[in-house]
Amino acid sequence: MTRWDNVGFARLWGWPIGLALLTLFGLLSALLGGGGLWWL
Amino acid sequence: MSRTVCPRSTSKCAPICALEYGGQRPLLFDGQSGLPKDAGRPKPPGIVGLLLAVHGELLAGLPGRLFIAAVGATALLSVISGIMIYAPFAAGRPFGDIRVERSRRLAWLDRHNVIGIASAAWLLVVTATGFMNAIERPLSNAWRAGISRTLPTVESNGMAIGPDEALATARRVALEMKFETVIFPGKAPGIPGYYLVWGSGTTTLTKRLTAPVAINALTGKPSMAGALPVPWYLRLLDVSRPLHFGDYGGLPLKILWALLDVVTILVLGSGLYLWLARRRRATPAAQSQRSHGAGLEPEPAK
Hints:
Structural class of chain B: alpha+beta
Oligomer: heterodimer
Order of helices and strands of chain B: EEEHHHHHHHEEEHHH
Low-confidence stretches of chain A: none
Number of helices of chain A: 1
């Protein structure tokens, strides 16, 4: 067994997944908003 | 040679400019007088156009584009494989932890992993859309060949109607669309016997989705009520263009894109450094250093 098997999923992937979701949200909201933010 | 007519603004009264492609460069014509601009000479590409040609096809036409597509596919695989091996190399340390005290290589490994995983979503989007853009011409050719087979053959090569009439007909049969380009009948990017009047939707969700209305060049009649059906891969292309270049959000998004490009160069540069450093590990001195705990393997279980 390796050390990372014991690491919690949230601790290992929390920041990467959070940043990925933020990136995709930003890209799509600007795309749908025609350069602005679609919800404004 | 093919000719394209495109309105220069969204106003219905705006003059139309015609672009006639001689070789690879557009010739400009005044849409109202029909006279050629710049004395009929091809418009020379500016510095941005030149850089775009290098970026998209290495100034080598279709072979260059296909090579760039292969590079894009390789980059996409690199990003995916990088995400897959992130967990073992992160080894349970806090996000952003850089082990500067142990060795230079290990510190750069951590920087590579942290910067790479933080920008992974953007890297995936840009590499995947870049690959799509690079194969645009083969995809368009495939679609055009398919649509040519379904349209009734126009026997004569003559054009009984002009582009303005084709544009007016397209506007009449597809009221919900805004038209921007008229491609004359002929070989690529056109199809024989038909004007292709390209337009896009007008709602938030459809304004980046393009589709053509095919107008019979002899009769002036549309091939069907509305625009031609567009397959999923051309829809993907429509979305790929803005997402690859980041030119849909004004200057702030362009600056952000430039910064993320610098981040990408950092990831690429550090990856190259780590690859070279790994090759040097084969030397005895490097083996000695490895035995002191500066290796680049995932950390073992404790």
